[in-house]
Inverse folding.
């Protein structure tokens, strides 16, 4: 039986679910975001998934749909924010936590700030476009009128692997 603290892979997590083990809540929710990323890969979209949780309930669940919608703004986080706002009847997503498999880009970080999301949990770092820790630190910028608490690297290996597998498949 794995120690819940050692659950790092999708298979470990699935095993823990099956065994009814207590699971770190961040990993539990990230697992759902990863399911969304898997759906994106099946649709031949860059596999990034996001969910929004409010009061312990999933109020949005989305994946990247840039190709299908022919829309440069159709990143997983953008769609999830729109869904969450519709579900809650407010553009202010106070009390919500957004989980996303990849570090948000500047567009998504901007939208997260606009939505006043208090907490973001992300998986893999994005050294080429990340606006939370890699290229910019928008969530901590004192010049902006909102700050976002963020936790990165949750299930980072699994979140990164689904992306590298996707791009390897493209090249192959
Ligand atoms: Zn984005």
């Amino acid at each position: 039986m794995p120690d819940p603290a050692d659950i790092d892979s999708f298979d470990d997590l699935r095993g823990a679910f099956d065994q009814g083990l207590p699971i770190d809540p961040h990993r539990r929710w990230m697992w759902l975001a990863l399911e969304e990323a898997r759906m994106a890969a099946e649709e031949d979209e860059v596999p990034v998934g996001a969910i929004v949780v409010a009061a312990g309930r999933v109020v949005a669940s989305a994946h990247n749909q840039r190709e299908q919608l022919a829309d440069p703004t159709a990143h997983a986080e953008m769609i999830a924010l729109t869904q969450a706002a519709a579900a809650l009847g407010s553009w202010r997503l106070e009390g919500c936590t957004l989980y996303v498999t990849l570090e948000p880009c500047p567009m998504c970080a901007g939208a997260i700030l606009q939505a006043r999301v208090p907490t973001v949990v992300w998986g893999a770092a994005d050294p080429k476009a990340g606006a939370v820790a890699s290229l910019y630190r928008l969530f901590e910028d004192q010049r902006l009128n909102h700050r976002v608490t963020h936790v990165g690297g949750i299930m980072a290996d699994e979140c990164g692997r689904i992306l590298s597998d996707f791009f390897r498949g493209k090249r192959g």
User: Anything to note?
Assistant: The chain has six helices and five strands. The two ends are 37 Å apart (CA to CA). The longest strand covers residues 57-63.
